Amino acid sequence: QVLLVESGGCSVQAGGSLRLSCAASNDGSYCMGWFRQPPGKEREGVASIYTSSSSTYYADSVKGRFTISKDNATNTLYLQMDSLKPEDTAMYYCAADWVLDFGLALTPASYNNWGQGTQVTVSS
Fold first, then answer.
1. Which residue, 9, 37, 6, 53, is CA-closest to 45?
2. How confident is the model at residue 27 (pLDDT cuts 50, 70, 90)?
3. Alpha-carbon distance 24 to 43, whole Å?
4. Half-sphere exposure of 7 (CA within 13 A, CB side)
5. 7: which of 18, 23, 41, 79 is 20 to 30 A away, CA to CA?
6. In the prediction, which pLDDT does 96 show?
7. How many C-beta atoms lie closer than 10 Å to residue 20's C-beta?
8. Residue 69 CA: distances (Å) to CA of 34, 39, 79
9. What residues does 123 pair with on adjacent strands?
């Protein structure tokens, strides 16, 4: 099992920026991703990245605003969030697993290792 610890969440105004971090233990996971769960709603994929190729995948709702990256030397995952909207308010989680099917990289069920989450609140 991979240990994941998120940080960086806080309350910001619409239009602001945040960078989330996820420190991960190294067990050779092939893919890491960010997910979010708004109050009362289902968890959804936000962005994912493959360790070796650095190929990235984004949900349509965040394309052009969010950027996922990974520092392989420290095994730290980042999510740069710009132009934040109230709709981005959610608990944000990072996840890691061996996901070989690129089409499932933003599917929560593809991941078996999860962090505890960090809250992001965007006010209008």
1. 37
2. low
3. 20
4. 4
5. 41
6. 93
7. 23
8. 10, 26, 7
9. 13
Report pLDDT digits (tens) over 34-74. 999 999 999 999 999 988 788 999 999 999 999 999 998 88
Residue 115 identity: G
Largest Cα separation within the chain, whole Å, is 41
- DSSP annotation of 72: T
Q: What six digits make up the tokens of 31? A: 């893919």
Matching residue, tokens 């602001």? 16
C-beta of residue 19 within 8 angstroms of C-beta of residue 92:
no
3-state SS class at 33:
strand
Which helix (H) or strand (E) segment holds residue 47: the answer is: strand 44-50
